[in-house]
Amino acid sequence: MLNSTICESGSSHFNELLTEFYSSGAKSINDGDTSNDRPLHYAVKSHLFDEKDIAMFITMGADLNVTNNEGRTPLHEIARSIYCKSGIAKMLLFHGANPHTTDNNGYTAFHHLATCHAQDKAEQVDIGRLLLLHGADINAPNYISETPLHLAVLFRNLNFKLLRFFATHGARANIPELKLPLALLGNRIRLKEITEILADTSTDVNAHLPATHRTALHLAIENPNCRSIIVRTLLSNGADVNARDLVNSTPLHYAVSRFHYEDDEDDQIRYEKEPVEDGWEKKFSVFNLSNSDYLQINKIKLLLEFHANINAKDNFGQTPLHNAVKNIECSLRVFKILLQNGANVNAVCNVNSTALQYAVQVNWNNEDVILELLNQGADPNIMSGFGMSALHHSVRNPCCDLIVTRALLDKGADVNIADPETKYTPLLAALEYKCKLDHIQLLLERGAFVNTEEYSLSPLSWIVCSRYCELKVVKEILKHMDSIPPNVNAWLFFGVVRNGCSAEVIEELVKAGVNINAKDSENNTPLNLALDEPIAKMDVIRSLLKNGARASIPTGEEEYPWGDAFDEIIQDRFSSRDIDFIRDTLKYAICHTGRGVPFQLFNSDRKLRSYIRVLKELRVYQYQCIAEIESMTKNLLNVSTCLFTFLRLDGLCYSPGQLNRILEIVKYNFYPIYSDLIARKISKELLIEKLITCKVYMIDKFNQQIILNPYCVKFVATHLSNEDLFSCIRAFYVF
């Protein structure tokens, strides 16, 4: 193999090159090494060889058009060499080097010249003149349809003298079937000079990229490093200010949009059409707001100066104002400019959404923009194609502060606006999502309707079915309801069970008079529904039972659902938590049914000894429950009602006489299992009053009586449960 290092070392470089060449086994000066490079290829690439040396090669019969493995001739090599000697190029061309020959990539000598890191820029231009003089095609395309000028404008180490030479000697920047060379605006270096050079040529400034239909003006606007002078140069040279890309976006759409770059064959740049997940504005933004705000505003002013259509719509029906509200980099000044220059503040897109509706949907604080749109006449009552107004979006968007919702209402937003078909009001939108209490309170204060008789449209039913259901929101809605409509009352607790609402919510609904034992068409109660999923609904079942819920025998069945529920728990897991749950609920099952609940033995592969032991303990506990029930049937509160019947009746005890009789019974017949149920059947107000009037005695020899301060007792008692109050009274109760 010929060694170029040896060729370029020593004073007798020509002889050394030939010596090395022939010692490698070559028989002729036109034989190549392993890469098919000939001595002439090495010579033209080296700074040690001059015209006299090349003349000696020619005299010895060197083939001037021979190619190496990459298809390059000596003329290609001198055109791409950093030493780029025009004298050698002149000698090669004069003695027959073909300027039209292409290498394996379809590159001519002109292509190589356009991408050369030449040390001497003037020599590079001289070679260009020599190529033209010998008939080289300055517009020849390579195999991927790139002309030398294409490569020149995209080349990072650009020689502006060479570019000027191309531009003034007939080089064309766009040929119809080729890529648009005005993609030069992707070159971040000396953009102004590139643009001016191309503007001086016959370049069609409105030519567009085949794939995206973007023009040079689109590219200039989207480039964050592109200065206003470039935009002005393009516009002054005939660039269409209202040119449309593939989706009919104009340069003004681009000026207010957010871009991120994607690597593909056409260097396409995509911009977001809709707000997306949290963080998208940071992830995709190529602008630095502090540095780009001035540039952006200047570009917008330039486009408007050249009569850009400020209300042009793209394929989505969106105007530049629509795009601007979705761009976090657009300052308030941008909106003022657009609106002052005639932007239609109430223009609607293909889905009938206005800029205001988009502004209240973005995931950042857009307060200033929203207020500006409202002050400029934005209509808050325009409904989108999805049946939503700006108020709908405001109350459900966590990024919209209360001031936005209040501003919408102050500007005439209808608090009860709804699509006639869906009847989806702003209050329902607020309840469906993150249930911001301050927004809900404001809607209710402004007259949001809560007393609908249709269950599916009742705000109360929406909140208990929402995954964001909170007690404070439930209380707020109940506070504004005149009463709970019968149809809502009948179905509300079924929604509570399905959603798995908290114990506090269940208790609050019971206080409000919601029927916890309502029945559906198949005779199922809410407790039946919960018992269908005993493992998932354990906490709900406990809360329902503590608030008086009962199971029933469904239509077509012969038994209560208790047995199946317990069997499912035992079969599935049977952990200590499950055992506690069964113990807690078993007493309710026996109280409601008046009999025991049968257990079945499943999964024989378990540790049977401990498994059977626990079942035995549960059966013993069941017998104890039954024994207390039987005892309660023998204790009469009056001639017709025993204590057990009292437990099974609906409603609370408000009778002091009945309370005294209950206390007399439990004083001597203590019911450790059912005492909490007995306590919850008595009105809390009655228990507090009884506690205040109880006589309390010190345990000493004088048996001194203590008088309790009734105000202190009331204060403490309000923080105690019925069970705690009942225990205190029973302890103090004296006949």
Note down, in words, how this protein is organized:
The chain is mainly α. The chain is 49% helix and 1% strand. It has a two-stranded antiparallel sheet with strand order 1-2. Helix 5 packs antiparallel against helix 6, helix 21 packs parallel to helix 23 and helix 37 runs antiparallel to helix 38. Residues 1-11, 175-189, 260-291 and 601-606 have low confidence and may be disordered.
Short characterization:
The chain is mainly α. Helices cover 49% and strands 1% of the residues.
Please indicate the percent range of residues in DSSP E strands (runs of 2 or more).
under 5%
Gyration radius, rounded: 44 Å
SS elements, strand count: 4
Compute the number of helices.
39
Determine the fraction of residues in helical runs and give it as a percent range: 40-55%
Instruction: Characterize the biggest β-sheet.
Output: 2 strands, antiparallel
How many angstroms separate the termini? 122 Å
Stretches with pLDDT under 50, minimum 5 residues: 1-11, 175-189, 260-291, 601-606
Strand order of the largest sheet: 1-2
Helix/strand-derived category reads mainly alpha
Instruction: Kindly report the average pLDDT value.
Output: 81
Protein name: Ankyrin repeat protein FPV162
GO molecular function: toxin activity
Organism: Caerostris darwini
Keywords: ANK repeat, Exocytosis, Membrane, Neurotoxin, Presynaptic neurotoxin, Repeat, Secreted, Target cell membrane, Target membrane, Toxin
